Amino acid sequence: MIVRDLNKIIEANGERVVSDAKWRSVRMLLADDGMGFSFHITYLEAGSEHTFEYKNHFESVFCMKGSGSITDIATGETHEIKQGVMYALNKHDRHILRADEELVMACCFNPPVTGKEVHREDGSYAAAEDLETA
Amino acid sequence: MIVRDLNKIIEANGERVVSDAKWRSVRMLLADDGMGFSFHITYLEAGSEHTFEYKNHFESVFCMKGSGSITDIATGETHEIKQGVMYALNKHDRHILRADEELVMACCFNPPVTGKEVHREDGSYAAAEDLETA
After folding, report:
1. A1 assigned to some structural domain
2. 3-class SS of residue A88
3. With a CB-CB cutoff of 8 Å, which residues 48-77 of chain A face chain B?
């Protein structure tokens, strides 16, 4: 059994916490935990807007706190995001996520994020359209 | 893109909401959503105690609200559960979960729950030690 505490991981501020200016993600479970998925708590700054496309992953995102919206770029459809709303990117959907208030999201990835992708996502290697807040 | 609202699912009170006297689980994503995992929001009643063993699944459980404890039956070790604590059953660990206050948990299963297991889990077919709050 693995037991981890979000608040202690944030306090430690080690490699399980990844961020840029507008988002921060805490990696609660990664590929090497052997669960077959990864699990992340992600904070998106109030007023921020993000364009994401997870070409190689499915991701589900459950809103625990905050408000905003998501636009599916393929269809043009926009959905309200608030506490209790979940979206699942079952078609590797390219999308725009907007945080009106700070969003706190519980995110699952399949296949699991390894940590290597996270470093790529976090700036130096990945193209902008390949960024992943994980 | 799949978009679902926990509160609307609870209001509708259809087959996505499963419960017994001491817990209720809302199935946000099931196997047929094609994500490769399932995702559930589960409520465990204050004062309740549950013995679970997921013989065929890995499960991670993130505490969004409430307080309690979990005992790993194999090791005898007990861990405090509170907001921000996650446990992951990476060894199909048989365990006792206690809710001191109502627990609200975000749960991921791999392989994904299909709904068929849920009916089994929900009473008529499953042996007690095989119960799964999913």
Report:
1. no
2. strand
3. 58, 60, 62, 64, 70, 72, 75, 77
**Rounded to two decimals, what is the model's pTM?**
0.89
Chain B interface includes A7 (CB < 8 A):
yes
CATH classification of the domain holding B128: 2.60.120.10
Which residues neighbour B44 within 8 Å (Cβ) at sequence distance 6 or greater?
Answer: B22, B23, B50, B66, B68, B97, B99, B102, B103, B105, B133
ipTM of the shown complex: 0.89
Answer whether residue B119 is part of any domain. no
pLDDT digit string (tens) for chain B, length 134 residues:
999 999 999 999 999 999 987 999 999 999 999 999 999 999 999 999 999 888 889 999 999 999 999 999 999 999 999 999 999 999 999 999 999 999 999 999 999 999 877 545 533 334 334 445 55
B25 is in which domain, residue-wise? 6-113+124-133
Kindly state whether B35 is in contact with chain A, defined as any CB-CB distance less than 8 angstroms: yes
Question: Contacts of residue B95 in chain A, CB cutoff 8 Å?
Answer: 1
Min distance A125 CA to chain B CA atoms (Å): 27
Total domains present in chain B:
1
The answer to the question of residue B118 being in a domain is no
